[in-house]
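stage 2 :: seqdesign
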């Protein structure tokens, strides 16, 4: 079954991936954090019912707080996606924060002044109390309430947390409770693996549905095509085949058999 979990990258692999150049976070206590917090999802690969390997996709949670102009939906930072859910109109003073151990390494909480905005979002580099599920932070003249949800490794060890941050003024105005915020974070994290794999599978099945619709109208010239896997740029396509690929091939063989049979009948 697919699984999603967090891990910390460091050492030789950390350097080879180039994360040492972009993962550093300067903390408010004067120290520097030099590790990368990763969110990764994986799923098994089967060929003719036989397990042949796994497909792995991951995202570094440090420092990134908004999507790049040319990025795909899979490359949208988790904190940016959470902010879109929290504030559809983009006007509310709210966002998401991610901590590695006690240090906040990413934030989508907007800065209020242009000077701060040029240096990135608010709360990055702040130190949290890992024993609390809710706490208050001061950023210049502003105060934020953050509700935390743990980020865990595959074996269940907590290595960080993701939190929803809202200004104290807005919290008093709308009466948002901590259980509601934590519950929303749990749903967001629980859907990470499903979003990564379900989006692609759904699009592939929709293509098959459209082809089958053309066949039902008598148009057997439309082949059953499967989209190129997202990871085919880095992994040979034969290792990425799954049950949907085999179903597509069998349906296309059936279509071609019917088409040839109809052609023979017409010639008679």
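stage 2 :: out
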């Amino acid at each position: 079954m697919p699984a999603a979990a967090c891990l910390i990258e460091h050492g030789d692999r950390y350097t080879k991936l180039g994360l040492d150049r972009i993962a550093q976070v300067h903390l408010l206590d004067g120290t520097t954090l030099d590790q990368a917090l990763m969110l990764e999802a994986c799923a098994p690969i089967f060929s003719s019912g036989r397990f042949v390997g796994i497909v792995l996709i991951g995202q570094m949670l440090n420092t990134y707080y908004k999507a790049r102009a040319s990025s795909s939906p899979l490359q949208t930072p988790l904190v940016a996606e959470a902010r879109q859910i929290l504030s559809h109109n983009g006007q509310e003073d709210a966002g998401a924060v991610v901590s590695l151990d006690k240090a906040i390494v990413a934030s989508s909480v907007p800065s209020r002044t242009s000077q701060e905005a040029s240096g990135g979002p608010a709360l990055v580099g702040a130190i949290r109390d890992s024993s609390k599920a809710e706490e208050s932070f001061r950023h210049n003249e502003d105060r934020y309430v953050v509700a935390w949800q743990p980020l865990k490794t595959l074996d269940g060890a907590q290595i960080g947390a993701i939190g929803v941050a809202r200004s104290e003024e807005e919290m008093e105005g709308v009466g948002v409770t901590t259980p509601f915020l934590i519950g929303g974070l749990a749903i967001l994290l629980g859907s990470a693996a499903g979003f990564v794999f379900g989006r692609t599978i759904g699009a592939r099945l929709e293509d098959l549905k459209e082809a089958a619709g053309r066949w039902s109208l008598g148009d057997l010239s439309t082949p059953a095509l499967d989209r190129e896997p997202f990871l085919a740029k880095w992994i040979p396509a034969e290792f990425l085949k799954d049950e949907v690929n085999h179903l597509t091939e069998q349906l296309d063989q059936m279509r071609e058999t019917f088409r040839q049979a109809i052609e023979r009948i017409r010639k008679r």
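stage 3 :: structure notes
- The chain has two domains: 3-190, 194-267.
- The chain is about 35% helix and 25% strand.
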